[in-house]
Amino acid sequence: MKRRIPTLLLAAVALATLPGCDDSGRQTKGKPLFLADITGRAGEVLLVVDNDIKNDTSGRFMRAIFEQPMLGLPSDEPLYDVLTVPRKAFNAQLPTFRNLVYTQVADTIAVDTVKYGHDQWAKPQAYISVQAGSKARLLKLLERHEMKILSFVAQSERDRIIRFNRRTRDHGLTDYLRRHWNIAVDIPTGYNKNKSSDDFTWVSTETPETSVGMFFYSFPYVGEGTFSKEYLLNKRDSLLHFNIEGPKGSFMCTELRADITYRTGTADGLPMVELRGLWRMNGYLMGGPFVLRAIHDTRNDRVFVMDGYVYYPSKDRKREKIRQIDAIMYSARMLPPAAPADTVNANK
């Protein structure tokens, strides 16, 4: 019995520190000393919403935010799988879900708010609190915050993958890419280098069912037209034709009959263009989605491209594999040019 006392005491302390929550979903006690790990699968969102709101226009709009199709896939897949639970049921279970949206509508709420947080009851958890004074006000609130809500959950999902990749990175492969391309990028264990030359590197992870891979390549920046969709796709198809050979003499290329999304932004503080669309093997029945990021790497006077693809013919659910590629790309940082060997030796 004496040996069991410490265990029982620890259990009592743990139970005492578990947080409760009030009607707004806020904790009524401080966070526990040790947060549980999150539950739920990648790409899932739990909506805590009462049934009268769930079945209202505002509730349907909330679901539609998360269930809209992901761009650039061969068939429609929702951005997230949505689960719902009423607030009274939520209070009766441990609220450790990975992406959690807690909704309350009451006429006593004077100010409509959307609040964002992390690690409310578990880690690494994304938590959103939505409060409105009526269903009509809730709908307007969601319409105003739709893009921010999506960005918050997307970044939370991506950050989880980035942390996992950093913990499990293949040091040999990441060191090779650092030396060869002057980039710091976390490639997780399981990827292999299939091909590499001065201007093209191909890595992938293969299973009997899938192929998930990335191409790294660069070319000179020759002005604003370098970042046009047409220029980037011409470069892409030229390099893939030469480097990626498939069965029976086929080769990889862009499926130009499908929509290709084009987005500008920044990556690591540098101008960036992102393309999403479909690839195929010219001369053979193979294909799938791709995502490409072209960065104007002024530090190394080049356009640097990360180009990822997914081949998963037996399943419709390609969404999470594209998210894995996205996370690798978001982890990349351009490094300054390496100092010449004679300069390094002279400074020693």
- Give the CATH superfamily of the largest domain: Mog1/PsbP, alpha/beta/alpha sandwich
Q: Approximately what portion of the residues adopt beta-strand conformation?
A: 25-35%
Strand tally is 17
Largest sheet: 8 strands, antiparallel
Question: Which regions are unreliable across 5 or more consecutive residues at pLDDT < 50?
Answer: 1-20, 341-348
Overall pLDDT metric:
88
Instruction: Give the fraction of residues assigned to helices.
Output: 25-40%
Number of domains: 2
Q: Secondary-structure element sequence? A: HEEHHEHEEEEHHEEEEHEEEEEHEH
Molecular structure report:
The structure is a single chain. Helix content is 32%, strand content 31%. With 348 residues, the protein is α+β, with helices and mostly antiparallel strands. The strands form four sheets. Strands 9, 10, 11, 12, 13, 14, 15 and 16 form an eight-stranded antiparallel β-sheet that branches. Strands 3-2-4-7-5 form a five-stranded mixed β-sheet. Strands 1-6 form a two-stranded parallel sheet. A hairpin with a 4-residue loop joins strand 10 (200-206) and strand 11 (211-219). Residues 1-20 and 341-348 have low confidence and may be disordered.
